[in-house]
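Ticket #4471: structure output looks truncated?

Reporter: J.K.
Steps to reproduce: submitted the chain below (82 residues) through the standard prediction queue, then opened the result file.
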Amino acid sequence: MKTFLPIAAAVSLALTAFAHAGEAQGTITAIDPAAMTMTLDTGDTYTLPAEFDISLIGPGMVVALAHEDDAAKTVTDMEQID
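Returned output as attached by the reporter:
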């Protein structure tokens, strides 16, 4: 029983983390390498992680992404949609 509580707490924290994430989809319209941001055709701007290779993306690409639900909308996962 003692191990159940820490496991339940960890699962609860993990589910809470997922609740604070967002998803988006659209066409990249602008990229700012200096700020490490990209803007979609929805008008929303997303911050790319510092380790992201910005040369892999470009305007006109259609992407689906997951992001933190913070002011910077930091991208946590992204894939190109054909």
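Triage note (M.O.): checked the attachment and the full token line is present. Confidence is low (pLDDT under 50) at residues 1-19.
Status: closed, working as intended.
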